[in-house]
Amino acid sequence: NNKKHGKGIQVWKQAGAIYDGEWKFGKRNGYGTYSVLLLKSKEYVRKYAGEWKNGKKHGYGVYFYNNSAVYDGEWSEDQRSGKGTMHYENGDIYVGEWQMDKSHGQGHLFSNGKLYEGTWEDGKMNGDGKLYYSEKGLLYEGFWVDGEAKCGTMMDFRRDKAPAPPKYPFPKLHLKDVESVLREAKSACLDHCCQQSSRG
């Protein structure tokens, strides 16, 4: 049938790209690397190294973006999907689950001296999570909607090891049933958010 099958190299001179890897019925399939030509240096740089299926990134692979960002993890039909680590150009690092090219599910974000660990939806913090402020020795534990903290508690966390803690310790919360208060606040927040989204 005259289609590429097995191992081989394809060069696209006009597009300035090279694929070196496995083929099946004329499509990239199996392990392979995809490189593009840099016009200034006239050298090829690797864009992707990993698994392919039906000509698309699928399975485990590493993708190098035009800036210094790198994604190392699972793919499904050319989109980040499954578990993976994203090193962003600004130094942020996300480690966790992905769906349809966005952080989605359980994940950790290391950003600017802070660590968020919790639930993500469509690329934003959504649901229960914890935000650690390592510089100040504080921990916020609560509930997020579309990337914004909506209700929760702030407390000292490893304050004695923090490089720049606040002048005074965070006061302890003295409620009989903290969990019940937070549950009610979370429920009210969800009701409000659902009403807002049904109007929009």
UniProtKB/TrEMBL annotation:
Keyword Repeat: yes
Origin: domain of life: Eukaryota
Subcellular location: Cytoplasmic vesicle, Secretory vesicle, Acrosome
Principal subcellular localisation of the protein: cytoplasm
GO cellular component term, pick one: acrosomal vesicle
Stored InterPro entries: MORN, MORN3
Function: Assembles a suppression complex (suppresome) by tethering SIRT1 and MDM2 to regulate composite modifications of p53/TP53. Confers both deacetylation-mediated functional inactivation, by SIRT1, and ubiquitination-dependent degradation, by MDM2, of p53/TP53, promoting a proliferative and cell survival behaviors. May play a role in the regulation of spermatogenesis.
Protein name, as recorded: MORN repeat-containing protein 3
